[in-house]
Structures are given as structure tokens and as C-alpha cells.
Amino acid sequence: MYALVDGNNFYASCERVFNPALNGKPVVVLSNNDGIIIARSNEAKAMGIKMGIPAFQIKKQIENGEVHAFSSNFALYGDMSQRMMQIFSGFTPQVEIYSIDEAFLDFAGFQNTDFKQLGIELKKRVRKYIGIPVSVGFGPTKTLAKIANRIAKKKMPQVGVALIDTPEKIQLALKLTPIEEVWGIGRRYASFLQEHGVKTAWDFTRLPDAFIRKNMSVNGLRTKEELLGTSCIPVELVPPPKKAIRTARTFSKNTSDLIYIEEAIADFAAKSARKLREEKAVANLLTVFLKTNRFDTKKPYYAKSFTLQIDPPTSSSILLIKKAKEALKIIYKEGLGYKKAGVILSGIVPEENRQLSLFEAGEYHKHRQIMKIMDKINTATGKEILKIGAQGQSRAWRLKQEHRSRRYTTRWDELITIKI
DNA sequence: TCTGGGGTCCTAGGACCC
DNA sequence: TCTGGGGTCCTAGGACCC
Hints:
Layout lengths: L1 E6 L2 H8 L9 E4 L6 E4 L1 H5 L12 H5 L4 E4 L2 H15 L6 E5 L2 E5 L8 H15 L4 E6 L2 H14 L5 E3 L3 H10 L10 H9 L5 H5 L3 H19 L16 E12 L2 H21 L2 E12 L10 E12 L2 H15 L6 E13 L10 H21 L30 H8 L1
Parallel strand pairs: 2-4, 7-8
Antiparallel strand pairs: 1-6, 1-7, 2-3, 5-6, 9-12, 10-11, 10-12
Helix pairs in contact: 6-7, 11-12
The structure holds a DNA duplex (18 and 18 nucleotides).
């Protein structure tokens, strides 16, 4: 038996933990730059506020206090997430952290367990210690656990726990689940399947294997098997090493200024490099991309990327910034208003497997020492106190965050400063 | 005026090798 | 008139997830 546990309206719930006056009120959380809606409380959903819509569409309701809006505060959500996962691991050591707000729990070997009761207990404990409401779905496969979770949330919100443990319940659950709600069936496949008369998860399991294989690759087939109760997606207790690391931002304003863009790209490269060092890895490919505003119908859309080989592979912010600037110069065209840019590191290998070239050993160790100290200080202070000069001070491209809450759980200095 | 960010996997087709 | 077979690796594009 597997469980899928997730935080209800996770980001909105995190904000409420520190602002209980907002319980029962419409709350939304905005993306970077206060751009779009990325989380909604039930009350906000009930008002018809859709996921992913641009924030300006509900600007009025935010300003007149009808809706409470928060800029995203990922330092807070990340920390709350860790605490929540900690509670999960008190129920089984087999926990796969699937995303910031959800985890698969593997209950292999739990004989004669009342899972429903276990789910209720888990919910209670998370609520008590973390303050976040969660939903729990149990099923014999991960895909069915997902479905059970959805049913718990939609059909039995008072309990918030659902269990699929017999063939009869599997069938019923599949018939209750619209095809577009199935894990692994996205927008494209859903509309394709609907055109072929598939409305529910149950209809999908009636399709011939050959048809699924031909149109949806082996993944489609796997989903079918999982829906029928045969587990083929294992729980991953150890996160696999990253294959790509990316840092990208939308600028709050269009800019054509190469100096500012260079600064932004340098900062993205440094941030990516730091994530790379956290993985204890080095990269041998670096991609820089640059885009104009894709929503502007009056001007031609320009989006280009360029990838450079990094030889020998490195995780040094200094070297990666240098490379990123090179790549930027290749794709930068004067006179365009750029809206978004980013840096992607790939070709990632563990640091210990790194091929050392004969002549760079000295420089490599020098950089390594500098980075180590930099990371140590920045981690200890919780701020980016030490930076490479190229990352700049002006931050003209900085994020717009008009509604950010405090970093309640991770930034004590900030709290104290505000009190004074 | 204003539209996010960070990932993964699969497949087809081309380049290249013997 | 006639133009092999078998394999690997890489990349771009398209699908998916949160």
C-alpha cells in the first residue's frame, strides 16, 4: 500500500499558519514578480479565481481587501515543507519527497493495518505540529494513491482521507475520475483521448495496449497498468542526482541594456553554480537564453539560446560567470526589449568523477577553496553576503515583491530587525 | 501597464562507426 | 539495372510533473 499525502493549497496554508486571522478568508499567493496566481485557498477558488491567471486580473479585489495576496516566499514554504516531511517519516521510513508539498509513503510490509485510521492520525499530527491541513490517499499503486488523494480532497473534505484497497473500489474510483485528472495525462493527451471517447480513467483502461503504446509511448502503458492495480512506478527514497540546473527570471520591466542583462546573467550563473556545488557536482555544458515578451503581439518574438562546452567541467561561480557572459554576447541583439533570461547547467557529473586536465589542477583547487568559503558564509548568514563582482549591486532587474510575508521560520535577524 | 520557475522522460532522425 | 547491415550517440521537439 502506498499513500500520497499533500498539503492543501500549500503555499496559501503556509501563509495562514503565521496569519491565522486569514482562516476562512480568500488568500492567494503570487509567482515571482507578483506575476500570476500560483496558489489559492478554497475561498479564493470558490470566488472563481483560476490557477495561473495574471495577477492584474484580480488587482481590484486585492486592493479593496476582498482577496489577501502574498508574494511568493519560497524560503518559508521550503522550510515548512521540510518540517512536514519530518512528520511523515514518523509513520514510515519509506518516504519519497515528490514535490515541495507532497510525498509518497510506502507501507510495504504493514500487515493488518487500519490505513484509514492511520491517515486520520497523520492528518491530525501534521495539523498539530505544523499547522498545515493535508489530504491522504491510499492505493496499491502510486497512480491510484494520487486518485485516492483527489477523492479525499474533493468528495470527502471533512475526513480528508480516502482508501482504495479492493478491486471494487478501484473500479468505482476510476469511474469517478475524469481522464484529465489522472497523473501522467496532461492537457494534450486528455484532449486527444476525449476525441476518442475516453472520458474517465475507467474508459482509458478499456483501450487496447497497442493503441496506447502507439500514441502515448511506454508511459501511457505504464499509467494504464498502474490504474488497474499493478505497480510499475517505484518509490524513490533517494533523490536521483540532478541532470540539469536552471536559474531564470522574468524581468519586471523590458530592458535592452546589455549591462543590466549581463549582471542578471552573472547572478543566474552564480545561483546555478551554488546549486551545483550543493549537489557536489560539476557541469560541462552551460546554456544562456534570452527572450522578448511573448505576450506582446505588436513586436516580433525573439527567443534564442546558446550552449557552451565547459572544459574542464567546473562548479566555480567565477568560471561559469565568465562563460555565461560569453554565451550572452552571442545571442544578444541590440535594440530589443528583453523580458526573460536564464542560465542552464547540464552535463552534470559528480565532482569526484571529474576528469582533471594536467595543467589546471592548481587553479581548480584555488577556486574550490574560494567557493567553499563563500558558500559557508552565505549559508551561515542566510543571505548572499559574498558575491562575485559581476553579479552587481544595482539589481535593476530585481523582482517585484509587493506582498511578501516575513521569513518567519528561517530569518530570525529579519524578524528582530523589524521589531526594533 | 501588468502574464512564473524548475524539473524529467521518450522518440525520431541524423551523424557517425565498423 | 543495380546501391548492406547493425549499432551507438546526440539533439530537438514534444509530452509530462509540481
